[in-house]
Write a structure and sequence with these properties.
- The structure is a single chain.
- The two termini are 14 Å apart.
- α2 crosses α3.
- The protein is of the alpha+beta class and 73 residues long.
- 44% of the residues lie in helices and 16% in strands.
Length: 73
């Protein structure tokens, strides 16, 4: 992974929906792992499928990370 994981403060500034790859960064998991988990229905937060691709609600990411004490998946 090239970029460091996003901080909770940074995630709070994101738009309401973010691409799955960006959500993967928030959870400190690789892009390929994220897409594999999403395809299997095993991504740690709900994935919204749309014409533009797979997206994740930022509020779901924040709730997941806050409940996990900010730890990554």
């Amino acid at each position: 992974m090239g970029e460091p994981p996003a901080t909770l403060d940074e995630i709070r500034t994101w738009p309401a929906l973010v691409p799955l790859a960006q959500a993967a960064r928030a959870l400190n998991i690789g892009r390929t792992t994220a897409f594999t988990r999403a395809a299997r229905g095993e991504f740690p937060v709900p994935v919204v499928r749309s014409v533009g691709g797979q997206r994740v609600r930022t509020a779901d990411l924040i709730a997941y990370l806050a409940a996990d004490g900010g730890a990554s998946s």
